[in-house]
């Protein structure tokens, strides 16, 4: 993306101001500067977002435009034009929220989309395109909490269309061991073993896994160095014993001579060989297939990250260590795993 500041033509603004500006000329120049700054506001904001966040915003805004078209309203480019938000009201956003509910979107998607709308309406108000009063009222529109979500999802279980699950698939220790035990005598089996170990033993997000290169793995040191785009952080993990074994087999048989910048995980080909790269969708499909093979329906890479965090807490990992290793920006998510791991009656003493 071009630098957002490039959208502000400073030469044009300067040309509007005479060497000895009159009041009228200065007003014109100020108005031109305001318009230019307003146009640059969205571009600057989006430039600072991570690529995956920008993509998520685009999906959310496209969903909003679809809703507006559904109710007979046409708007400009919501991602780049402040004026496109000029007619937004809190009632319109409430209607959008209820539309998403009726259309069967997952509540996580609904809540994220609301947060996106609030961010852009706040920017629109800052640019002067939207009344500050409306922006404040839109900011007060609430999404749905977990308890509300469970009740709502129970009522609309047959109408939800999102691929996102309301709850993570429960994975036992036996399941985890079975997933790691992939065939070691085939290229796909060796690749799958490494893929599963990186998810189960290191808690990688699917995008982080897909982006791994050959150079990320140091077999001599037994480490994995990778980038967590979501929190803009490069981490080094000490490979678990299972991951190191899987990596050694995979490199020995399937990645000999590969350059450091080459993709780590290769895609599947007919006949059991490997070629190309294993992208996000392919990883999702592969994990789902491997899960189905041991009786876990709709298993996803994020379910394996859930397992990793829960297993870490059960093993005695403290909150700060889990937050750092998992690449979370706050303690909120690690705390949820702690709460799930608690035994509710462990401090209850009964007279026997």
From TrEMBL:
Entry keywords, A to Z: DNA recombination, DNA-binding
Entry's transmembrane regions: none
GO molecular function (one): DNA binding
Domain Core-binding (CB): start-end pairs: 36-125
Biological processes, Gene Ontology terms: DNA integration; DNA recombination
Domain spans labelled Tyr recombinase: 164-352
CDD domains on file: DNA_BRE_C (cd00397)
Cross-referenced InterPro entries: CB, DNA_brk_join_enz, Integrase-like_cat_sf, Integrase_catalytic, Integrase_recombinase_N, Tyrosine_recombinase_XerCD
One Pfam family hit: Phage_integrase
Identification of the protein by name: Tyr recombinase domain-containing protein
Gene source species: Candidatus Viridilinea mediisalina
């Amino acid at each position: 993306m071009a630098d957002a500041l490039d959208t502000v033509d400073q030469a044009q603004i300067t040309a509007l101001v005479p060497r000895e500006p009159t009041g009228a000329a200065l007003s014109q120049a100020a108005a031109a500067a305001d318009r230019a700054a307003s146009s640059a506001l969205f571009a600057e904001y989006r430039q600072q977002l991570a690529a995956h966040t920008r993509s998520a915003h685009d999906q959310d805004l496209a969903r909003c435009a679809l809703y507006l078209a559904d109710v007979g309203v046409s708007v400009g480019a919501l991602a780049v034009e402040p004026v496109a938000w000029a007619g937004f009201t809190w009632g319109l956003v409430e209607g959008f929220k209820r539309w998403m509910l009726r259309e069967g979107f997952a509540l996580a998607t609904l809540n994220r989309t609301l947060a996106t709308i609030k961010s852009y309406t706040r920017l629109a108000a800052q640019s002067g395109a939207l009344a500050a009063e409306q922006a404040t009222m839109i900011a007060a529109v609430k999404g749905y909490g977990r308890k509300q979500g469970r009740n709502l999802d129970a009522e609309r279980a047959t109408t939800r269309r999102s691929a996102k699950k309301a709850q993570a698939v429960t994975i036992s220790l036996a399941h985890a061991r079975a997933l790691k035990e992939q065939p070691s005598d085939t290229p796909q089996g060796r690749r799958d073993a490494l893929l599963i170990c990186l998810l189960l033993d290191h808690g990688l997000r699917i995008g982080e896994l897909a982006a791994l290169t050959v150079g990320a793995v140091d077999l001599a040191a037994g480490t994995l160095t990778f980038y967590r785009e979501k929190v803009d952080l490069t981490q080094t993990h000490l490979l678990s014993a299972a991951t190191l074994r899987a990596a050694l087999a995979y490199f020995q048989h399937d990645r000999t001579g590969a350059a450091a910048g080459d993709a780590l995980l290769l895609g599947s080909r007919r006949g059991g060989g490997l070629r190309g790269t294993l992208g996000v969708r392919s990883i999702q499909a592969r994990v789902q297939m491997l899960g189905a093979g041991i009786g876990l329906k709709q298993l996803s890479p994020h379910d394996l990250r859930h397992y990793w965090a829960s297993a870490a807490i059960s093993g005695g990992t403290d909150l700060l260590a889990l937050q750092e290793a998992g690449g979370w920006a706050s303690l909120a998510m690690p705390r949820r795993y702690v709460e799930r791991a608690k035994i509710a009656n462990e401090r209850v003493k009964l007279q026997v």
